[in-house]
């Protein structure tokens, strides 16, 4: 049985951290939906129960977003988080508050979702590593 070197474990560890960061980012997006819906339900923070829920969801979404951004690019992570929150809040608000969800809104929400999926696929560790320029040869 051979001991594995730390170098051989590094890509797996980095890859699993990257995958966990995406899961945490999805959770942050769900909390963002809760925050946006709660702010809407609070009616300008005049309804105490919705206002407390907004405060709790705010803390949860900021905490989980900051944890995810430890291992993801800020621009990509923030864009995905905002997209999940925006599209999810639109759907949840249509259910909870009877706000209209017209075909044109559904179309543009679908565009946001496709963009989120595209960002996720474009930031996979394998694709990122393949796009990095080769290191120059050592000078003699």
Automatic annotation (TrEMBL):
Keywords: Cell membrane, Membrane, Transmembrane, Transmembrane helix, Transport. The chain crosses the membrane at residues 21-38, 50-69, 76-97, 103-122. It is a multi-pass membrane protein. InterPro entries: EmrE-like (IPR037185), Small_drug/metabolite_transptr (IPR000390), Small_multidrug_res (IPR045324). GO terms for cellular component: plasma membrane. Gene3D superfamilies: 1.10.3730.20. The keyword Lipid biosynthesis does not apply. It is found in: Cell membrane. It comes from the Bacteria. GO terms for molecular function: transmembrane transporter activity. The keyword Transmembrane helix applies. Belongs to the drug/metabolite transporter (DMT) superfamily. Small multidrug resistance (SMR) (TC 2.A.7.1) family. This is QacE family quaternary ammonium compound efflux SMR transporter.
């Amino acid at each position: 049985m051979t001991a594995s070197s730390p170098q051989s474990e590094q890509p797996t560890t980095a890859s699993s951290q990257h995958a966990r960061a995406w899961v945490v980012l999805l959770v942050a997006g769900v909390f963002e939906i809760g925050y946006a819906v709660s702010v809407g339900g609070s009616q300008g923070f005049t309804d105490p129960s919705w206002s407390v829920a907004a405060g709790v969801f705010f803390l949860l979404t900021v905490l989980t977003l900051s944890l995810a951004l430890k291992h993801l690019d800020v621009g990509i992570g923030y864009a995905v988080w905002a997209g999940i929150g925006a599209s999810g809040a639109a759907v949840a608000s249509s259910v909870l508050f009877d706000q209209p969800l017209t075909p044109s809104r559904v179309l543009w929400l679908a565009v946001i979702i496709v963009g989120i999926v595209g960002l996720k696929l474009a930031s996979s560790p394998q694709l990122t590593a393949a796009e990095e320029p080769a290191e120059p040869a050592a000078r003699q």
